[in-house]
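Bit of a strange request maybe. I'm writing a small parser for structure token strings and I need a real example to test against, not something I typed by hand. Could someone generate the tokens for this chain?
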Amino acid sequence: MDNVKQFETEPQAVPKKKKKNVSLDKKKARYGWFFVAPFLIGFFLIYLPMIFESIQFSFMDTSTIPGGGLAKTWVGLDNYRYAFLENADFTGKLIGSVKDLLFKVPAIVIFSLFMAVLLNQKMKGRALFRAIFFIPVIVSTGIIESIDLQNILASTQSSMASFSEGGSMQTTTNVGTQIISLLDVQEFFSSMKIGQDLVGYVLWVVNEVYSIVEKSGVQMLIFLAGLQSISPAIYESCKMEGASAWETFWKITFPMISPMILVNTIYTVIDSFTAQSNGVMTFINDIYSQSKGMVRATAMSWVYFLVVIVILAIVAGLLSAYVFYQRRD
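Reply from user aminoacidic:
Good idea to test on real output. This should exercise your parser:
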């Protein structure tokens, strides 16, 4: 009995709580926030105040104070009214930039995907060929890009261009058009009963082949990374089942690479709209140097920004409906 009473009076030990193990996904998420933190800090402390100030400038007019500084006057939508109603060149440049985008983006994405598929094959000198196609991306940056924008290279090519039979000098674009006429591309497509719009697009792609190759380097690398992430076992099973290379591409490669197509399309749209050679960007810079140009150029920049956002939303919405995401369950 004494043992029973002693057992009843002894306090029971409280079980220790087991520590929950943090999952690998949560650890990766924490590391992700750690690496993104410098950008977030810089965005909220530096860029966000500048964005608010830029929006205010687009609704104001400025004048110089004799003692120094600027006096701001609220003018409402006058700067936006000037951009759309008083300055007809801005609307024309904007529409022309969007049209050029509709032609250039599909050509760049298709060409970069085609070259990525070729360079992903096992062959000798594969690394060398990849470097060759990425060289235009390196050449088109920094000092080389500024030289190109000053048309030094274009003037050199123009001076070295060959004379035609009539003895007149031809530029690079005319030479490209002459090559196409010699190859008789138009007659080739007309014999296939293809519409003139498609023929014109093919001719434009051939004439702009240098620009397309120059703008396809980054997209090519992204496609290569996506192609190399596809498991070789999938291709082996397709080969065992007797699937052809054409069927393997459209049934396996294309669906698996579709997320990269969305990424590259969005990247190409942004790169095309923010390039220094873009007509709208050049026009806004010219307006900035004029009288009242700072506030008017700011209003045009925000209009341009909203147009880009709308186009990106449309592109992302259309392509997202056809993107295939592999489940990892």
